[in-house]
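For concreteness, we quote verbatim a single protein encoded this way:
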Amino acid sequence: MTHSIIDILFRPGQFFSGLDIEKERMTLPLLILLAGGITAAAYGYLIGGVTAQMMGGAMAGLDTIVLLSSVIGAFLGVFIFWIIWAALMFGISMVFKGSGSFSGTLMVIGYGYLPQVIGTVITLIAAIEYVPKIVVPKITSAMMQDPAAVQQVTASLMKDPAMVELTQISALVTIVFLLWSANIWIFGIQNARKLAVRDAAICVGIPVIAWIFYMIYTLGVS
């Protein structure tokens, strides 16, 4: 491969036009996803620590379970979403009679994940700034017998001003960098599935726009 990381980010059309998807190794996409998984796990550690602190008094060892689940879930989530994005775009491209292997689609989704690694680093920095400011309410063992009490404490945490600001920043950063990834994916899907740019844009746009609307909806109801 003769092109650089800069080409992926800023010249995706040029990058993918010079790439033989079926002959290219998966090494760099996997490294990009690994970097994304590590940064996501670090962010999960900070956010999971808040939840663990809230749940710590409810049951012995529950805080450790919550923290580990947050870290492992965040790390694995990157790879799960990688497969989901690829499957959705591959499936939609079948409507346009796209050709090319699923592994090729996985590869270009991996390349296009690079902006989201940058975005996760930004949210991680924001979390380092905001998490210490969050006032964490406690759930006691007695409260565990009352679902309404648990829900009330959880709602109190989510309404904490620092938590609200961190959630909003995280959502905004995620949307911006997902759109950046989408721009890269369009050219990648065009190459991997041998489609017109318009058709590739539809394949990428449908799941991405749906996910963005879902994020905005959940942000509004939280």
